[in-house]
């Protein structure tokens, strides 16, 4: 027997086993949905809960892949794969091959059962108002675990960010969040996943601001910080932590050292661009090789395994190797590992392994900075700039060049080294790198891959609203039409002065033939017997329904028109509607103002 309906007002408790718990939950969810729109604290509460879930997920991913490393590569418990002195056996070169085969099988399954492109948090926030699939996010996270767990030269960061963003998007849909609130929550989710994995709440928060949300804003601060802190606390409770980065205790940095460190930032920009183009080049070579797509990761895995025979530091993300390299002497092996790691990472991501270059870029940056410091010591001995300092600065700078986020990487270095003075020099190098990459290349690694797909986005800033505001949504369909073969007198009769401002001419098949201003048709100098077509303007200036608001505004400017007809396509020119420039500019201004308020300009 069912209990009383939720709105019955009955005070009697529902019998055991009825739908009362469901009703109570529904009421609670409805109350939270309403409060989220009215009170910011509700969004912060959702973000904190979501952060806990993201922290659990990131911890599980980290610990599972560590267990895979120990089992597959015969490591002692707690040992890092990239810190191993050598592979336990030459047969270990086949482990990445096995991972590649697994990735190929996964790709075949996805091609058959889930063909759409997966949306990551950056794309979700830039183009889809924060909407992304939790199922897709779980799949991507599992793929990164397979790739990293079998030794591919990539990190788990893409999985951490993806699962955090996916959880956030799912919660956001459950609570019917508005577009901007959902974007903030997705940024907070990605920040929580990354922050928990690195045990770095400040870095995680600024990852959310700079890379996922695309801006710093007051409304976003509390949710992002709440999610990141809660995720880090959960990860710490579960035993996930990152060892501090040890640097020599006697390192002294002088004010003038900022100059060679800034030069290191320029070098990092060049290396970052080279790596991004190399990854694209490897992907193109695999595409032209004739090797079936499902087998490409296995072929690349064999190459990565062969490189690991020289040093396991090329495997996985490089967590353990980073700690080995920062405070060790500069040697020829550093340059060799630097080159091999770049090649291994390019092979891994270019062949179809899933993962990120986040920590790989930190490791490569440390190697690059260490080599730079060693070269300075040889060429300019009086400078006395310790290679450990340039290694740390290079670590942050190269990561900024590839991933983006100057403050993100600076806070990561601060939380890894716990040296505030050194972090200022890292920030200087990061700013130089960021500026140089944006001026000469214009993309981070993720947005560069969007560019290769034909997208024009360069950050996670919300441009989706602009694409969604199309001519089809803005046009009016109650426009006045008139046959192009009619006379001016007939048009005057049909449309007296003041009845309409603009009339659309159509031919016998209903195709667009031009625009006529009613006031112009009523001008005394025109003979009523003349064909109205002689007054037609903008015969070849048309809008298409799929054009977005920005494209429509540019079309009005190019045509020097106040009104334009909307046609289905330029070949058949079938009339669909009419759109005025004033309406387009007003809608554009309204949506732009909403976006500006969402960035925190008005709260």
Summarize the structure.
This is Chloride channel core. The protein has 603 residues and is mainly alpha-helical.
Please describe what this structure looks like.
The strands form 2 sheets. Strands 1-2-3 form a 3-stranded mixed sheet. The N terminus is likely disordered. A hairpin with a 7-residue loop joins strand 5 and strand 6. It has 603 residues and is mainly α. 49% of the residues are buried. The protein is built from 24 helices and 6 strands. The protein folds into 3 domains: 215 residues, Orthogonal Bundle (Clc chloride channel), CATH 1.10.3080; 204 residues, Orthogonal Bundle (Clc chloride channel), CATH 1.10.3080.10; 132 residues, CBS-domain (Roll). Helix 1 crosses helix 2, helix 2 packs antiparallel against helix 6 and helix 15 crosses helix 17. The protein is elongated, with a radius of gyration of 30 Å.
Please state the second-level CATH architecture of the largest domain: Orthogonal Bundle
CATH topology of the largest domain: Clc chloride channel
Please identify the structural class as seen in this structure. Answer: mainly alpha
Alpha plus pi helix count: 24
**C-alpha end-to-end distance:** 49 Å
Tell the overall outline: elongated
Count the strands?
6
Q: Ranges with pLDDT <50 over ≥5 residues? A: 1-18
H and E order: HHHHHHHHHHHHHHHHHHHHEHEEHEHEEH
- Give the full name of the CATH homologous superfamily of the largest domain: Clc chloride channel
The structural domain count equals 3
Radius of gyration: 30 Å
Residue-averaged pLDDT: 85
CATH classification, class level of the largest domain: Mainly Alpha
Strand order across the biggest sheet? 1-2-3
State the share of residues found in helices, binned by percent.
55-70%
Beta-strand proportion: under 5%
């Amino acid at each position: 027997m069912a209990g009383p309906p939720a709105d019955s007002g009955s005070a009697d408790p529902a019998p055991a086993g009825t739908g009362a718990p469901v009703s109570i939950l529904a009421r609670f969810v409805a109350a939270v949905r309403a409060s989220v729109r009215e009170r910011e604290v509700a969004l912060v509460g959702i973000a904190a809960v979501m952060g806990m879930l993201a922290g659990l997920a990131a911890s599980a991913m980290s610990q599972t892949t560590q267990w895979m490393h120990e089992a597959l590569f015969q490591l002692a418990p707690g040992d890092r794969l990239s810190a191993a002195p050598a592979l336990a056996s030459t047969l270990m070169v086949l482990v990445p091959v096995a991972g590649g085969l697994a990735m190929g099988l996964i790709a075949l399954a996805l091609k058959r059962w889930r063909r759409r492109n997966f949306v990551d948090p950056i794309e979700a926030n830039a183009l889809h108002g924060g909407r992304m699939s939790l199922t897709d996010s779980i799949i991507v996270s599992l793929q990164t675990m397979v790739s990293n767990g079998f030794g591919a030269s990539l990190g788990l960061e893409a999985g951490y960010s993806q699962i955090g963003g996916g959880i956030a998007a799912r919660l956001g849909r459950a609570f019917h969040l508005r577009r901007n609130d959902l974007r903030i929550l997705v940024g907070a989710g990605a920040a929580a996943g990354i922050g928990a994995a690195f045990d770095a709440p400040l870095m995680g928060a600024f990852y959310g601001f700079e890379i996922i949300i695309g801006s710093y804003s007051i409304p976003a601060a509390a949710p992002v910080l709440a999610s990141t802190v809660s995720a880090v606390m959960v990860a710490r409770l579960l035993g996930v932590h990152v060892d501090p980065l040890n640097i020599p205790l006697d390192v002294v940095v002088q004010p003038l050292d900022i100059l060679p460190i800034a030069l290191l930032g320029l070098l990092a920009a060049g290396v970052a661009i080279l790596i991004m183009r190399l990854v694209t080049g490897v992907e193109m070579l695999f595409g032209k090789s004739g090797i079936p797509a499902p087998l490409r990761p296995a072929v690349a895995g064999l190459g990565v395994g062969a490189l690991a025979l020289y040093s396991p530091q090329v495997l996985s993300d490089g967590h353990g190797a980073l700690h080995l390299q920062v405070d060790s002497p500069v040697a020829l092996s550093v340059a060799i590992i630097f080159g091999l790691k770049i090649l291994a990472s390019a092979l891994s991501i270019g062949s179809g392994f899933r993962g990120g270059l986040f920590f790989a870029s930190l490791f490569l940056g440390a190697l690059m900075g260490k080599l730079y410091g060693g070269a300075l010591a040889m060429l300019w001995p009086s400078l006395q700039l310790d290679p450990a300092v340039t290694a740390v600065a290079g670590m942050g700078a190269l990561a900024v060049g590839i991933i983006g986020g100057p403050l993100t990487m600076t806070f990561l270095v601060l939380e890894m080294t716990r040296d505030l003075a050194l972090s200022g020099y890292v920030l200087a190098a990061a700013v130089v790198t960021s500026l140089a990459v944006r001026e000469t290349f214009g993309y981070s690694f993720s947005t560069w891959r969007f560019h290769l797909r034909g997208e024009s986005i360069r950050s996670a800033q919300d441009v989706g609203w602009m694409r969604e505001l199309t001519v089809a949504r803005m046009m009016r369909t109650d426009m006045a039409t008139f046959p192009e073969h009619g006379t001016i007198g007939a048009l005057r009769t049909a449309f007296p002065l003041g009845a309409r401002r603009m009339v659309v001419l159509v031919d016998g098949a209903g195709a667009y033939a031009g625009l006529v201003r009613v006031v112009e048709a009523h001008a005394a100098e025109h003979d009523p017997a003349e064909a109205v077509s002689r007054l037609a303007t903008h015969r070849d200036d048309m809008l298409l329904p799929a054009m977005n608001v920005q494209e429509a505004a540019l079309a009005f400017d190019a045509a020097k028109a106040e009104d334009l007809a909307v046609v289905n396509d330029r070949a058949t020119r079938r009339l669909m509607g009419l759109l005025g420039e004033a309406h387009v500019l007003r809608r554009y201004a309204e949506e732009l103002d909403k976006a500006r308020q969402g960035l925190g300009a008005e709260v």
